[in-house]
Amino acid sequence: MTGTGPSTELDPVILPAIPPVHVLSGHFPALQVTDRLHRGSQIVGRFETSGLVGFKVSAQGRPLRVQMSLSMDERSASGWHNGNTGPDLALPRFIQIRSQGRLRQCVLLRGRNPHARVAFDLTPDEIPDDGLICVEALDVMEGDGVCDEVRAVLAGRVQADGVAGLRLDKIVFEEPPEVDYDPDTLDGSRCELSSLISGGGLANLNRQGVRVLRSGMFVVNPVLRDTFGSSGRITLRLGTKAEAASMIPATWRRVNSELRWLRHATRKLLGTAAPKVERVYSLRDGEAGPFGQTVHGNVTELVLPSPTASPFLVVIEPCPGVLPTLEFGISD
After folding, report:
1. How far apart are CA 95 and CA 138, in angstroms?
2. pLDDT in tens, 175-206
3. 19 burial via Cβ count (<10 Å: 0-12, 13-18, 19+)
4. Which of 14, 176, 177, 307 could form an SS bridge with 65, CB 3.0 to 4.6 Å?
5. Is the dihedral of CA 155, 101, 59, 177 positive or negative?
């Protein structure tokens, strides 16, 4: 015996990974802890339900940036590991990403094959001497750190057991760059790809332009130091588009699809098609109080302080037959 417990001289010695580390498989040696994650060969793994992964990383007293790629597919359903592969696409999934016991960012996923990005920094004092970095994916209704007021708002609007079948495609550990260059303006899709906002996930990671917010809400995540949105204030420009005929129940489709489109076109012509933000919540503290909302014709400019300690949930007032959109964001 070479130590206490069941270890022997034949046990392999697992050395901590040295950054930069790109983990693409569940059989990566530094992946030391899994809880309710089924390891994969082409992906890191798939969560059975809310769970955790732990990696041994040699930070050597330096901060680390953690970047994750998440996605859903046809197997992303409760009970998928028992043969139930029928996805539930009716409601979006709202997922907390936590690390070292703290809420870092939130992900909203909806539709077929959506992808999402998560990024956060760990300070040296958050990384223990043994280098074990734990990352959790939790349903928004579980754990602590999310206030009861936000959970009451989300009740019935998001899918239960939202982590079920979630894919962890990739995770990267690296030192934060000394200087990050980012533009002052990002279109709606780039805002989501950068992890600043999460509005349902992107089916095409190369997509650019306006981001349709089909869930009527979106998350604004804490931003990384020296990146887009970290200057202290963010302005998000919101618009609307007519709901596609395929999203309208069949019994009404023939009669109302064209009427809905014409009604929205008329509102745009009159300059009255701007969406209205109903509420802004801090996931940790509840309603965020007064926020800047200015209407210019058919667009609404929402001004928020850059979130630092907690994600914001932005709820948009529903309008039948109309979908809100995120046109672009400005880092002031």
Report:
1. 6
2. 998 766 667 899 999 999 999 999 999 999 88
3. middle
4. 176
5. positive
